[in-house]
Structures are given as C-alpha cells and as structure tokens.
Amino acid sequence: MNFIEKVRAAGIVGAGGAGFPTDVKLNAKAEYLIINAAECEPLIETDKYICREYAEEVVAGTLMAAEQIGAEKVVIALKAIYTPEIAALKAAINKAGAKIEISEMPTFYPAGDEQITVEFVTGRSVPERGLPLNVGVVVNNVGTMMNLYEAITEGKPVTNKFLSVTGEVAKTIMLNVPIGTSLRECVDKAGALIDDYAIIVGGPMMGDVLTKKDDIDKAVVTKTTGNIIVLPKDHYLVTWSTDSMEKLRHQTKSACIQCRMCTDLCPRYLIGHDIQPHLVMRNLWRENLITDDQEYINCFGSALNCCDCRICETFACPMLLSPQKMNAYFKVQIREKGLDKPRNQEPTAREGLDIRRVPTGRLVARLRLSKYYGKHVQECIEFVPENVFIPFSQHIGKPALAQVKVGDNVQKGQLIAAAQEGISANIHSSVSGVVKEVSAQGALIHAEGGDNHK
Ligand code: SF4
Ligand code: SF4
Predict the structure, then answer these.
(1) Are 247 and 255 in contact (CB under 8 A)?
(2) Which of 141, 138, 128 lies closest to 51 in space, CA to CA?
(3) To test the ligand 2 pocket, which listed residue (262, 266, 330) has its Cβ within 8 A of the most ligand atoms?
(4) Interhelix angle for 142-154 vs 46-53, to 10°?
(5) Which end of the chain is least crowded, N or C, by CB within 10 Å?
(6) Which of 254, 279, 280, 281 gets mutated to test ligand 2 (max ligand atoms within 8 A of its CB)?
(7) What span, in angstroms and rounded, lies between the C-alpha atoms of 276 and 287?
(8) Is 316 in the pocket of ligand 2 (CB under 6 A)?
(9) How far is 149 from 136, CA to CA, in rounded Å?
(10) Domains and CATH numbers, the chain
(11) pLDDT at residue number 136
C-alpha cells in the first residue's frame, strides 16, 4: 500500500472538524501545511492535551504529511497563551531536527477556524465557499496527525477518541474511549452535578445542543467528538437553541436597528467575503414579496457565505437577534429555488481585521460560561464500556457499508464497514467482542476479551 492507501485503510478523517477524509486532503500538492492546534472554541481541552502528551507523535505525523504534499512551509498554529503546549512542541521539533514553525495566535474566536487560521498564518484569504488548497494550503488538525503517525508506523486504524468533558460536572476531565461509547457514560465519569441536564457536543458556539433524555442516551462518541459541555436546562445557551424560527422572525422584523455590528464583526466579512447579515435582516420583511431571482440573491445571497460561527448572534448584536439562524434559513431557501451567487475567487482581508477580533474571555462572559472557563485537565481517564454503537457515517461523504453480521466475533481494529468509492471512510471496530445488531446506520458491539484494555 502506498501512503494514501494506508491513510484511507486506517479510516482517518479530520479529528477536529466535520470529518473530511484525510486521504483525500493529503492527495494533493501544496506550498503550506498548517497543523491546527488552536482549539477554535472555548472550553475544549483536547488539542491542548494532545500537544502536551503526544508532541513527538504529532511532529512525526506532521513531517509525514508535509512530505506527502510536498509542503515547503510547515506550521503548527496555536494560541500564544498555550505555553506548556508550545514548549512541548518546540522540544519535539528540536529533537526531530524538523523545520516546523510555531505560529502563535492571539486568544480570539474563531482562531482555529480553518479559513481564519489560513489568513493569520499566510495572509491569504480563501475564496468564498472555497478550500485552503485554493490558496496553496492544506490544513489538518493536531489529533489527525497523531492518528496519521499511528497508521503509517503501526498500521493502526482509528478506534479511539480523546475528548474533554466539562461544564456542570465535579471535575473537568480528559477521556480516551473507544469510538461508539455513549456520551452519557462519558458524562458519568466526570460526575454530573445535576440530574436533569442538557449537553453541548463540541464547543459552545457551534456544537450540537441535546436537551431531550432520549437524544442524550442515544448519542455516542465519534471520530470527530472532541468535547462535551454539561449545562443546566435553563442555561442561556440551551434555552436559546430551542427558540422557534417564527419567534426569531418576529423579533428580527421588530427589533433590528440596522447597526451593522453583525456584519462588521463577521470573521468571513473581515477576510473579504461578501457576507452582510445586516442586509439579510433588513430585507427579511419582504421575503415573500420578491419575485425576481436576482433581487432575491441581492437581498439574501450573501447567506451562502456564512460559516455558522455565530459571532453575530452571540456577541455582535446588541438586540440579541439571530442573523446566523436567518442565514441558515436562507441557505436552504436559495438551494431549493435552484439559485446561486457568484463566488469571489480572490477576496482580500478588510481593514480593521486585527482590531475587530472577538476576545475569547469576553465571549465566554457573554455566553454565561465564565464559571467553567480555565479548568484545565491534568490526566486522562481510559475506560471501555460494555457496549459500543459504532455509526457507519462519522465523516463527510458517503457512509461506509457493513462488512459484519449479527453474531460475528470481531477484533479491535477489524474493518466492520467499508468506505464507498469517492469521498467516504472505513470504519473499524473499537473493541473486541460480539456484534449484537447491524443496520445501515451502524453496529452495536458487546465488548468481550482481554485486548480491549490495550
Ligand atoms: S454566523 Fe454570523 S458572524 Fe459567523 S459567518 Fe455567519 S454571518 Fe458571519
Ligand atoms: S447587529 Fe443586530 S441589530 Fe444590528 S444590524 Fe445586525 S441584526 Fe440588526
């Protein structure tokens, strides 16, 4: 197997984002390789832990990826305040004699967003709805580099995931668990301080909010799960997530003062993209009166360039309105109408970008999360649950197809669902045990056997 085939065989996907298959990403040539360790959202500890504890593996994986894509410049980007992590990485870089730069970012949100990181490191703006590769850059998460190192040197597929658990818990913890472990069990390890809680899977800005007991019970750790935040059900972020579109529309029509703050602080606007949420909000009232397609795009088309970072609604808007949710609504409407908006292929950053970055500490205060901020993890808890449910779609692209049936004995690391042609990813068993259920969605496996704790 060549390098790309090994990466594909191991089922490696982006560990810090939407799960883009890494073999596809690395099957390219680029001037820059940027390893993203900036931990985009507050309250996530995972990337920092990996940098501290696995710096040598990260550096080794980074060098392999850099060689594969022919990168002339290799950069690990993280926040300047991550001093122990920077020290660990620098020591590993020196030990390897590697030519890898460390890019130290200020503490702002969304440092760590792929396009914002590219702009910070290279000064280049990614085209609207484009990829870093369009400006000669490949970006990978730091956890992905560790998985890459293990796949290439040991032939080890992705079976486990590091994730932090924080919020309304006895102790903020780091876990290393088999993929398919229930999130409820992860929360139990941290010791929830309340019985009836909601969780955010991911960061507080872009994570999925789960409020119903059934939804939390069904949710499992996937290749992209990096964090769980436990919150009271009456927490601001939880109640806000359940606001109806109807309510938000009424609020917009009656309360938007057209101050433009949502546009002026929008990170995508600041790197030069045509995204103007204040115009979307201004024109909302006449949505159903517009019959001309071009006029519709003029009013609402910039929503297509929204990355859902939510700065506009959680930080910028003085009226507590929700431009992001309106953008999400218009993205769907525009696609259903079969319309599109031309993409600016050569955006340039706007003046004031540096002074309009949103400081993370102030954002955390706005989110009413200050009491949970700054609780760092020291050690990692590993455990193997009795059962895992391993989804066959943990990545962007086509789901993997089942290769096992009920009653099969499987080994940890065995292929249980195969990637389809094109963009897809292999799925491996995260435990040794017996297959109890299989569907198009995934496999339930009962863990048995001594090698589960290796
Ligand atoms: S969510 Fe708001 S701030 Fe973020 S990209 Fe979209 S419009 Fe801009
Ligand atoms: S920040 Fe709020 S009030 Fe100001 S233009 Fe945007 S949506 Fe309207």
Answers:
(1) no
(2) 141
(3) 262
(4) 50
(5) C
(6) 281
(7) 16
(8) yes
(9) 23
(10) 3-154 (3.40.50.11540), 159-235 (3.10.20.600), 247-366 (no CATH), 384-454 (2.40.50)
(11) 98
What one-letter code names the amino acid at 156? K
- Mean pLDDT to the nearest integer, 119-136: 98
Is the CB of 260 inside a 6 Å radius of any atom of ligand 2? yes
pLDDT score, position 355: 93
Q: What is the mean pLDDT of the chain?
A: 96
* pLDDT given at position 374: 86
Phi, psi of 228, rounded to the nearest 5 degrees: -130, 130
Distance CA 6, CA 68 (A): 12
Residue 225, exposed/middle/buried by CB under 10 A (0-12, 13-18, 19+)?
buried
CA distance 46 to 427: 22
Name beta bridge partners: 391: 442
Kindly report, residue by residue over 400-412, the tens digit of the pLDDT.
999 999 999 999 9
The closest alpha carbon to 415, from 378, 373, 443, 446, belongs to: 443
The separation between CA 105 and the C-alpha centre of its own chain, rounded to angstroms, equals: 18
d(CA 395, CA 393): 6
What does the alpha-carbon distance between residue 74 and residue 86 come to, in Å, rounded to a whole number? 15
Closest CA to 186 of 212, 154, 160: 160
Q: How many CB atoms lie within 10 A of CB 194?
A: 13
Place of tokens 């870093």: 132
Give pLDDT, residue 241: 85
Q: Average of pLDDT values for 280-288?
A: 95
Pocket of ligand 1 (CB under 6 A): 266, 268, 275, 277, 306-312, 323-324, 327
Phi-psi region of 274 (alpha: psi -120 to 50; beta: other; left: phi over 0): beta
Q: Where residue 454 falls among pLDDT bands split at 50, 70, 90?
A: low
Q: Which residue has 């491996």 as its token pair?
A: 428
Q: Could you tell me if the CB of 259 is within 6 A of ligand 2?
A: yes
Which range among 49-63, 149-163, 232-246 shows the weakest confidence by mean pLDDT?
A: 232-246
Prior bond of 110 cis (ω within 30°) = yes
Q: What percent of the chain has pLDDT above 90?
A: 94
> DSSP character for 441?
S
